[in-house]
Every structure is written in C-alpha cells, then in structure tokens.
Please model this.
Amino acid sequence: MPLNPNQTHTILNALGHSPNKKLGQNFLIDGNIVRKSIELAGIYKNEAIVEIGPGLGTLSKAILSTGAQLFAVEKDKTLANYLEETISKDSDNLHLLNEDCLKKPLGSLMDQNQTNDFKIVANLPYAVATPWLEAVLSTALPTRMVLMLQKEAADRYNAQPKTKNFGAISIFLQSAYIVHSTHTVSASCFYPKPKVDSTLIRLDLKQSAICFSKETKALIRTIFTQRRKQIASLCKKSDNEVIKHWLESLFTKGYTQSVRAEEIDLPSWQLLGYEKTNES
Model:
C-alpha cells in the first residue's frame, strides 16, 4: 500500500528532509493511481523497468512486487540513502543509482546491456520531464512508457498540428510512440499537493519508429522558438541540403511559403527523421 499523507510527512520529518520544489518532489499517496500505473505498464516477471525519481519508494514497491528488475535513478542523496536502507535490503531486484536523470536517463540499465526490451514507469519530477524524455529518445527506446506528468507537459506531448501546444517535443515523441491512453490525476493524489493537476499517460513504441538526429532535433527546436515566422524564411538560412530538399517537398505537397511550423503535419516533419524498426 502507498504511504498516506501522515506517513509521508512522518518519514520526511524523521529524515530531516523537506520536499524540494526545485527537484519536483511531490510524493504519490493514492493507491488507485499506483495500481493503475502497474496495470497500464503490463509488467511481467524479470522484465527490466526504469523508474525516475522513486522518492520514498511507493511506486517502486509496486513494481518490485511483480518480480521485475527495477533500475531506479534518484538524484536526492537523502532519499537514495533511505531507499538503500529500506527497499534494497529486502529486494535483490532493485538497482538504485544516486545520479541526475538527465545524465543517466535510464539509470544503470545501460551498464547491464538490457536495452533491447525494457519499459519505463515513473512519476516524473515536473522540472525535468521534457529534457529527460528527449534524452531517452536519443539513448534507447523502451517498448512502453507509463508516465505521470504535469498536465501541461502531457498536453504538449499529445498535441496535434494547428494547435498552440504542438511543438518539437510533440514531433519527436509522436514519431516514435503511439499515445495509447491518458488519465487526469488530481493534485490531491500527491504530498505536498502541487498547484496543477497531472496526467497519467501510456506510450507504446511504434513498430517502425521515426527518430531524429541530434542536428535535426536542434534545427526543429530552433524553428519552433520562432514559430510565428514563415518556415521558408527560416529554412532558407540553412546551408543543409537535406533541409533545402525538405522545404521543396513541402511545396510539392501544397504548402505555401507562408506556412508556419505548427501548421505542418506530422508525416511531413517525419521526412527529416530516420526509421528504427521495433523487433521486439
């Protein structure tokens, strides 16, 4: 069972630890959400699972109860020590790394050579959700991700062209993953209570995922930082022949020189990527 607010408060007091806003420390206290996360993930015994920011271990315990191998990364030294002294003593399946998830987006999983078939289940620290997700997409692609996110972030990930939320991260994520389901989660499910609601989202890897090079991602991000400008004027500044050919392909598809980034459909953006087959 997950810790309730009083238990969470008591443990944090005993550790002399106050929730760190900068690290996005809002601890999950709702058992239904924990169960829903596990159900969506569809975890089986000995499967490799990555968790980001396990905190006091509420979700970690539920993952370990399935018999999975859990690769967790926790930046906060106090919380990492707490997990080592509690959960790690009772389970050989917890592989805990005290590190910044932006430096080690998959924890110690990469060191175990288990990146061919793994999943991510995490209550993500809000401050790092998007940069962490981009790091994952550039490292190794999990077959499924079940992520708790700030609603605003989830809306960007699931955004469609011709909407204000559609941007670079929408393109990167949707080119590799199908948004299987989203569930709104009240702020009351966390301690301390955040100022906004959250979204629990399940993402399934596409059979033929489209990925993007580091250089192409940088270009797409740059274009969306100037989203009010016409795409033709932005791309013509590039000396990249691929970009020039892509621009011509847009015109062939009927787009005009005045089209803006958010108006271009996902398949057109995907012409800048490369295909990666999901063999699992």
Notes: The first helix runs from residue 5 to 15.
